[in-house]
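User: Predict the structure for this protein chain, please.
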Amino acid sequence: MRGRGLFFILFFCFGLASVSEARPVRIRPFLSLDLGVLGLSIDKRFTVNPENAALASSIAGFVRLRKGWKLSNSFLLEPALGLRVPWRSGADGTVMMFTFQAELSLGWQISNFIKLRVGPGLQWDMTVGFGETVTLNNGASTSDFYAPAGFSHSFTPTGNVGLEFSFTRSVTLNFDTFVLNPIVSSRRRFNGAITIGFKL
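Assistant: Here is the predicted structure, written as structure tokens:
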């Protein structure tokens, strides 16, 4: 099934390239601000009970800054850094959690209308604790509990695939898939993003 999906993506890309205008592909260095939505663990929505889908997978805002350097007449190097917005907070408000998505993609400008991006990446989860005291119910009375203080980090390797559609020289529509732990099947997860890009 996955092989068929990849076949249809490549078929779609080459089909668009074949019907594009018969003029040279234009590649320019760029800086893009991408704004849209990020779906976390979207594969879980299809593998858990429907009533638990919202707990296993979530949707949030996504902001990304993407830079493109021209390598040749067809390829660009496109590093990017994205952030889930807003950040998440613990139930007691003493902890904040930030999720960043770093990318180092190779962009293939198939035509003036469509570009394919492929490359490695890294999901960086940072937790910030304020070390506050939280009073919670403990039986018939209450007790003080101490929240952690400081920073903690976790890093997850990703494989990234994206399609970019250019409607004008300054506005693009982007579809991205981030495969977390792509090599370890038992821990593999899929995130996805849909964004509008604005060339700065």
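The two ends are 39 Å apart (CA to CA).
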